Amino acid sequence: MKITVCFLLLLLVCSVSTGKPKTNSVRVQQPFPQDLRTVLREMTSSLAVLKVEMTSLQEVNQASAAKLKELEKQEAVVAQQEAEIKMLKQNLKAQQVAFSASLVSEGSQTIGPFNTHTTLIFKHVLTNIGSAYDPNTGMFTAPVRGVYHFEWHIGVHGSTTAAVLVKNTNHIFAASEHQSSHYGSTSQGAELLLEAGDVVFVRLWKSTKIASQNYGAP
Questions:
Q1: Which residues pair with 189 in a beta bridge?
Q2: What is the spatial distance between Cα 187 and Cα 163, in angstroms, rounded to a whole number?
Q3: How are beta strands 139-141 and 199-204 bridged, if at all?
Q4: Is the pTM of this model over 0.90?
Q5: Please, what is the end-to-end C-alpha distance for the chain in angstroms?
Q6: Distances in whole angstroms, Cα of residue 63 to Cα of each of 48, 49, 77, 152, 209
Q7: pLDDT one-digit tens code per residue, 122-181
Q8: HEC string of 62-97?
Q9: CA-wise closest residue to 185 among 212, 207, 217
Q10: In whole angstroms, what is the distance from residue 137 CA to residue 125 CA?
């Protein structure tokens, strides 16, 4: 019995030693189906998290876009208000208009007569607040719409004088005076509703004279 057992053991050892030689190649272990399910679960979970984050970012972007649009509206309103304030300031500045002028700065001068109505140019300007009166043309230009008061004073020595206030091309009021040998004067006034850009000036009536006297302070 002992001899038989030893023989069997020897055969087993020989069979093991005469088997295929071992190789150094590395065999890649393929994942088991259970491992694939785990990976899929993790990927699904990651995709769900990404979807939540994308939804959150979209909501943030929409809120930012709405806020930006609201800011743009507010900027437009502020710009419009600034333009209105600027216009109001300009109108307020333009409303402060007044002027006083005469034909000569000193001494006396007789103008006329002429064959046609002639614009009187009051070159000696005492005040011209707002610069609405042009001493080169004798015309006042309304800077803004409003009611304006005008007065004009004329005189003549031993003759007839007449001057009419003109709005654009329309004669408004006239003042006249006739003196045979002495100096006489007359005046007239009017309140006119003017639009911005309307012009007002005084015309000497044709065939009449006007005497201007300015002797300054005594």
A1: 151
A2: 9
A3: antiparallel
A4: no
A5: 169
A6: 23, 21, 21, 68, 80
A7: 999 999 998 999 999 999 999 989 999 999 998 888 888 999 999 999 999 999 888 877
A8: HHHHHHHHHHHHHHHHHHHHHHHHHHHHHHHHHHCC
A9: 212
A10: 12
